[in-house]
Fold these 2 entries.
Entry 1:
Amino acid sequence: MKPIQVGLLGIGTVGRGTFEVLLRNQEEIKRRAGRGIEIAMVADLDTARAQQVVGHHAKVVSNAQEVIDNPDIDIVIELIGGYGIAKQLVMAAIEAGKHVVTANKALLAVHGTEIFAAAHRRGVMICFEAAVAGGIPIIKALREGLTANRIEWIAGIINGTTNFILSEMRDKGLAFDEVLKQAQALGYAEADPTFDIEGVDAAHKATIMSAIAYGIPVQFEKAYVEGISKLHAQDIRYAEQLGYRIKLLGIAKRVNAVGTREGIELRVHPCLVPTKRLIANVEGAMNAVMIQADAVGTTLYYGKGAGSEPTASAVIADLVDVTRLMTADPLNRVPHLAFQPDSMSDLPILSMDEVRTSYYLRLVVADEAGVLAKITGILAQAEISIDAVLQRPGSESKQETDLIILTHTCLEAHMNAAMASIQALKSVLAPIVRIRKEELS
Ligand code: NDP
Ligand code: HSE
């Protein structure tokens, strides 16, 4: 049988890995797919560089539309990134009846609804295993492996760049900017690294997982997003002293508690995680996703979430899937977002005010009588119960002290109100640092 003909759009970090791994492992991949898979055409703006990578194995062009227009191409891989030209090309490929494989989480988190609907209409597949947690097959795990379960929550370290930065800063005492440059050189960071640092990339991935876990549309615009750029070194240190590590987590959680609105929490922010949890010990650019589900309990998926060949591994897994499924009935394939399109849920994404979690607070306070009593009084009035208190000499002067408070779970709205009252106290000398805490148990 003639090999499946693939067109590759963008041969940068992931594109190159995809091309090389596919060529290197072609025999084994053919045995698994039941048919050869061949990248026959490559489009990239830098045709000279692309030609160097592909040699005589594929035709190189500068205009990606040429790949889509080629009737011999069965599958288009989009590895350009972003929402601009990538969206136009993906939509054009769908309209041309091509199956699409992409690693572009930004595109799917923001425009997924439109893209999946178009693909459904045209009877083609959009595969995106590489879009979440790079080489970890988390989409397959959620969509197929855990299909028997009601997913309770997902908490993931799903951005390699920020995890790398946090790890290197903690372990080696390196400066933020220096570590970021290393992450960029290693090919982990996005074209715009503020997407990594400010939590946007993790929120794209959490959005995609929330859709698959709960059968809701992708709603990136409703996600709460907070990155690591405002983290202070002393909070990383204090957290360690209290038995926690700070991680940037992407969280999707079904909430159905008495007294709260039923819905989905969708949030990305730095979190204190107990050091004894496996996920707290995921270091460097590694990713890990923890899933709590009713039948299977807790499962943890760990691996490389970024980089050329780890991401290529997921892209090629999708190529094999498409190759196997190309002959299957389009209406009975595994649905893009796990649930059948006519069985989607309208569960709302909850506002941050409705989120229930626990907190780490660091206050710089005047070292005088009665301060602690006033602060704990405000917390008590807001029905916020204290878990632990730590007092450490402040760095600036002898008249001030750092006060670290860990709380039990409460409503974010109550915490916001309490923080506003505490901040207004004359003896509170600097903006309060608040980091949310997830026990993950
Ligand atoms: P790169 O920037 O390394 O590669 C993108 C390539 O696309 C470049 O070679 C670029 O050329 C080319 N390109 C840009 N515009 C066009 C166009 N109009 N037509 C054809 N080619 C074009 O990005 P990555 O490989 O890192 O990322 C690709 C995708 O994979 C992104 O969506 C990213 O978010 C995702 N991803 C990346 C991971 C990683 O570890 N890097 C991991 C998981 C997902 P030029 O350089 O000349 O502009
Ligand atoms: N910039 C992303 C990261 C690449 O650092 O995790 C993988 O999606």
Note: The domain at 356-437 is CATH 3.30.70.260 (Alpha-Beta Plaits).
Entry 2:
Amino acid sequence: MDVSPMDIAQTDTSPEHRPPHVLVLGGTTEARLLAGALHGRLRVTSSLAGRVARPVPLPGEVRIGGFGGAEGLERWLREHRVDALIDATHPFAGTISFNAARAATAAHVPLLALRRPSWVPVPGDDWHRAGSPAEAAGALRGLGRRVFLTTGRMGLAAFARPDLDDHWFLVRSVDAPDPGTPTPARMETLLDRGPFTLEGERELLRRHRLDVLVTKDSGGAATAPKLAAAREAGLPVVVISRPPVPDGVPVVTTPDEAARWLAQLSGGELSG
Ligand code: NAP
């Protein structure tokens, strides 16, 4: 971080003084890095949805589980005297981002979205954009029959459709699909968590004779090697576009910039 979070911390030693409290909505590498950079200088609470069975350990305070919608989050912000809210959730976690915008407005808490940049195609890529998992499933016919599906277990149901029964899917996800989730007729599950290597991705494409990749536009380096491997192999890639960030919410792309935004609040709202 090139901005010391010390800049944000207050030096007031009066009995009423409490360190500014920042709530980081997490579940991403960027959220973890930001919490690590702020921890010890501010009071930082990281919030996780609780989807992953064994989350990576986090510095600072951690709370796990939903808030109960925008109203629940608003209540949490007030009850825990949160001075700033950073939505550092995954670019595809659209519901919590929408709730964060509503709750922050209602509780008068400054809100920032931290979103890693989108991936962009480079020469040699054969990308096909889709607006949703359902659209991606619809695009598959004609592109390939052996599908590397990396959209996670939550979007899996969209690919469980009769017109894809003759397709085969290698489904890679951190945790196994919930029992009862509709799944494609012919599939194999590969439980794994990034970062992945180019060599490893090449080997997967080769071993399973995959001929099309489906991915969300998650961005970031940890899962990008699959794109390079697909490019090298001349495979088409179906890329699901991100939902928009809620109107009016400022966006930064790095933990550094988020720390700078907090520093700018230090003379104003973030006064502890
Ligand atoms: P979502 O659809 O936007 O959220 C669904 C509900 O989960 C929210 O309404 C909220 O419940 C709860 N929730 C989500 N994120 C939360 C957080 N950080 N802290 C507390 N509650 C949270 O989100 P999702 O796509 O299921 O993703 C869940 C989490 O996994 C996110 O935190 C995200 O950063 C992480 N993640 C998601 C993806 C992805 O592809 N979607 C990938 C990697 C990591 P209440 O309404 O009860 O508050």
Note: Residues 1-13 have pLDDT under 50 and may be disordered.
